[in-house]
Write a sequence for this structure.
């Protein structure tokens, strides 16, 4: 097993966390949150963040338990070779499919909103070629790219919803009443997928410097995503109302359009928004696909040359997978199936890993204490 330098600081881990979580989901979150909860949909991201935080805490615990090791190494140690290998395979498969669906959603947004005469295949190829270039480098480059592009993500993510409050009708948030608590939990289960990307830390935590504050990086990332998603949902409800949000395919993009004012220096504000948003989608897909290729590389104990060959080979099936959904309806159907698979990979597996490791530590500690106690007892003459 090759040894790589551990040089990811707390801020770089935070950048990876934020970049991985905020992507295409921000364009649909107002509709998803208000589908069942109606005017109380702004609570959806909070419940989703609570669900995701449990898995994030488990991943942070594993990061401290296995410093310098990725999920490829510590999963077989905890679950055994067979079950651990299956979990690693599911993780790689999920990240591969997730990167493909995210790329396709990005292509759909660009084609329907900004470049209607550009073929979808052209947009996808351009994006995937950038991802290939990123994946041909060592893992330190990923941290630097995320750190470099994070300012382009932070500002628009908060600015757009806040500016749209100029058109807000605050009575759309009334009444403050939850009709069904099960519906609140159901919406939370649907919105937690907006935070997926945190599971990539099971790969990137291995390269954190000794003393890096893994918990601070994780909680800062998920807190920022919570603020962005909640603000976006509140803006969508106050501007459009929850009934109108159900008729919009990309409600957050419509939110950008209504923030325009005559005399502004940009006539089409959504074009500028999407231009900046490209950086967010690129880092999201890049982080996912790099984790896929890098995990495969560590699993097979190969070097950077294998990684470069693999990314070129795997990009071909990824491109064709992005073209499988024939329309936007099929795309959202694929996304629903992926969400079910993601619940296993991003919630169940990390929590079971942490619980198993915790119980094993307690058991070993208890056995060690009993052995030491037995040695202290002097034998009878």
């Amino acid at each position: 097993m090759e040894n790589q330098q551990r040089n990811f600081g707390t801020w770089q881990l935070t950048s990876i966390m934020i970049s991985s979580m905020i992507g295409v989901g921000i364009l649909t979150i107002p509709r998803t949150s208000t589908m069942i909860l109606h005017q109380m949909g702004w609570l959806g991201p909070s419940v989703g963040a609570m669900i995701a935080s449990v898995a994030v805490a488990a991943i942070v615990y594993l990061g401290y338990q296995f410093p310098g090791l990725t999920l490829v190494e510590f999963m077989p140690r905890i679950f055994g070779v067979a079950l651990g290998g299956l979990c690693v395979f599911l993780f790689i498969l999920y990240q591969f499919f997730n990167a493909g669906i995210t790329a396709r959603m990005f292509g759909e947004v660009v084609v329907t909103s900004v470049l209607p005469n550009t073929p979808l295949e052209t947009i996808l190829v351009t994006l995937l070629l950038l991802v290939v270039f990123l994946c041909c480098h060592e893992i330190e480059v990923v941290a630097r790219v995320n750190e470099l592009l994070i300012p382009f993500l932070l500002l628009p993510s908060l600015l757009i919803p806040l500016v749209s409050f100029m058109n807000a009708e605050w009575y759309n948030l009334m009444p403050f009443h939850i009709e069904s608590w099960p519906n609140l939990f159901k919406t939370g289960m649907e919105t937690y997928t907006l935070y997926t990307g945190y599971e990539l830390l099971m790969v990137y935590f291995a390269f954190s410097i000794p003393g890096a504050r893994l918990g601070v990086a994780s909680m800062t990332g998920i807190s920022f995503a919570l603020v962005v998603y909640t603000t976006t949902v509140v803006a969508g409800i106050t501007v459009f109302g929850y009934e109108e949000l159900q008729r919009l395919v990309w409600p957050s993009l419509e939110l950008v359009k209504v923030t325009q004012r005559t005399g502004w220096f940009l006539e089409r504000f959504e074009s500028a928004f999407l231009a900046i948003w490209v950086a967010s989608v690129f880092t999201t897909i890049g982080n996912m696909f790099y984790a896929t290729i890098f995990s495969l590389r560590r699993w097979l104990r190969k070097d950077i040359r294998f990684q470069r060959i693999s990314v070129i080979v795997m990009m071909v099936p990824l491109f064709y997978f992005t073209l499988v959904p024939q329309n936007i309806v099929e795309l959202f159907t694929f996304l629903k199936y992926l969400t079910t698979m993601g619940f296993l990979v991003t919630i169940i597996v990390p929590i079971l890993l942490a619980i198993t490791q915790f119980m094993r530590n307690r058991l070993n500690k208890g056995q060690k204490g009993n052995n030491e106690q037995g040695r202290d007892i002097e034998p009878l003459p």
User: Anything to note?
Assistant: The two ends are 52 Å apart (CA to CA). Residues 58 and 351 are 6 Å apart (CA to CA). The chain is about 75% helix and 0% strand. The longest helix spans residues 328-376.
